[in-house]
């Protein structure tokens, strides 16, 4: 797979030889010609338009003109090129708007899709997400063993082949995004450590790209969940956000600061599950010297409601209908979670905390009560205007985030 780099003003692409050992074959390098100034401006304007209809949904040409400051003829020319590239479609103007000159509506073409996947300890969830953000297909493949990286790549490839001959016939699959519950190196999609899956130094991006023949993006699942909720969900329009995701593999997190995702030096920021919150009562402790995800745990929640495994909606229903033992476990986890959240609030001073997965399930029992517990333990100034929200994209948040990572290169350069 080619990766684009730049050194001393020269842009080039590198394709590593994955079988290289010692003094074996060196990576292949090719120079990438820079666009002329005019071409560069046009590329950026095409990207602006495509990103607008991707993020905001269908927009009239008049709205695009207003948003970009470009003139109407330029907008018409750019839209025509995006349509020729098969990236947008135009529709007749809304007949209810009769004031002024009718303006055609431009929308992202739903036939352009990314395939998003989320491997977990009990299942591989895979989906086809349109450039218009519509979930075209979604499937949860339950497994009775830990998936290997190679098996995951092959399952994704097999599903894409099946869908191309069926439900996605006539669609254009442009890339794959994978949300992994573990530490992912941002530079090359190498999974350094996904402890619950037992993946170590796994070249997941290259494996999936080789199996599918498609450009592939890989990142931490919670990082992608935070991105999705910030762009489209509960944190939309919020500049300072802490996001925590609770899944089968534990607890991860993502950060939005000044409206931008914060990944850290290597891409590993947000590992809230590995922190050790103070536990006020010894009666609440279940794991000596344990970290947050040892105490606030989906596995413990499933045991309390008597289920061996469940997807998110099933677990939420079970918790809502469960008896006193489950209610006690939920209350215990909420107390410990509130301490962890107060620590994050003191350090990062977010305006909104978003909780996804099983953390959303235990929060929804009483969101005002959980907010009060956090405020009691946080500095008063940091907790004054704090809101706790549950992920509004629900079980699709990680897949939408993975699709967003997959679409990133297309949105940066629609003609690439």
Automatic annotation (TrEMBL):
<comment type="similarity">
    <text>Belongs to the ROK (NagC/XylR) family.</text>
</comment>
<dbReference type="InterPro" id="IPR043129">
    <property type="entry name" value="ATPase_NBD"/>
</dbReference>
<dbReference type="InterPro" id="IPR036388">
    <property type="entry name" value="WH-like_DNA-bd_sf"/>
</dbReference>
<dbReference type="InterPro" id="IPR000600">
    <property type="entry name" value="ROK"/>
</dbReference>
<protein>
    <submittedName>
        <fullName>ROK family transcriptional regulator</fullName>
    </submittedName>
</protein>
<dbReference type="InterPro" id="IPR036390">
    <property type="entry name" value="WH_DNA-bd_sf"/>
</dbReference>
<dbReference type="Pfam" id="PF00480">
    <property type="entry name" value="ROK"/>
</dbReference>
